[in-house]
Amino acid sequence: MSDAVSALAGAAYEGYCQVSDAGLTGMVTIRGDLGAAKVKAAVKKATGVALPGQGAIVAAKGRKLAWMSPDELLLFCGYDEAPGLTAALTEALAGQHALVANVSDARVVLRVTGTQAREVIAKLTPADVSPGAFGPGQMRRTRLQQVAAGFHMPDETSFEVIAFRSVADYVFTLLSNAARPGGEVGLFDG
Amino acid sequence: MLILECPYCGIMADETELTPGGEAHLKRATVGSTDDAFESYLFDRKNPKGVHFERWRHSAGCGKWFHAARSTTTLEVYGTYAAQVSEPPKELVAKIKKKCPGWEGWQ
Known about the structure:
- The complex is a heterodimer of chains A (about 190) and B (about 110).
- With about 190 residues, chain A is an alpha+beta fold.
- Chain A is about 20% helix and about 35% strand.
- Chain A folds into 2 domains: about 10-25 and about 105-180, 2-Layer Sandwich (Gyrase A, domain 2), CATH 3.30.1360.120; about 25-105, Heterotetrameric sarcosine oxidase (Alpha-Beta Plaits).
- The longest helix of chain A is centred in the N-terminal third of the chain and has 11 residues, at about 35-45.
- With about 110 residues, chain B is an alpha+beta fold.
- Helix content of chain B is about 20%, strand content about 30%.
- Chain B contains 2 helices and 6 strands, in the order E-E-E-H-E-E-E-H.
- The longest helix of chain B is centred in the last third of the chain and has 10 residues, at about 90-100.
- The chains are: A alpha+beta (about 190), B alpha+beta (about 110).
- Chain A: This is Sarcosine oxidase subunit gamma.
């Protein structure tokens, strides 16, 4: 077996917020009609996580299930359990018009932590990440400068950003630059 | 800056998160049509000063295509609706007619 490494190999940057590689993360894309009762039941049974509503992310048992579009979910799990979960989901969804794919190695997950984390993200995205508009439990697919990305907030002072593996370095550089000391804007202070 | 509400994810999406798809509700002139009709389908576009129906794709978001009605002069957005229709919803047309009495209709 090949030795799996994350795209950024543990890179970290210390600015007025911390930007770091979240390491190997299992990610499974599930596509299907999320309005269909059979699809919902199968996904819940195979993952053990309740289905998220529109724009939401639900966590349970160390896994997270995020709503990506009306017919797409993204499951975050342990890197090692992703192949097993993919197989279980494929089996559970057999006969349905659905598709399951293990995309762990096609994506990168970064973490931005710090009391000003919202500001660092706000510098790069058109999405409204102000405290009243965005918070933990929500998933947002948008862009970070020139590339597609998605993010959610595990807690009030951190973001988890997902992007395509091919642009991992670009996203890391973007976030690090936005978090550079001296770049504080104080957007969401007070 | 144009801000459209994606009817699929409910997000007020900024123009930079979207990809424009041109005029909406075009009807393809297909097999058996005249050359003139086909040429018109390919090239003739409305380009109105005022109310315009367009296709947009939430490309940096959920990835879905949808429809939007907006004014080309004021950028006022009258509404957005799903892609799986061949004509605009009646309520939306009524709403626009009320707002723009001189409007000649969407067809």
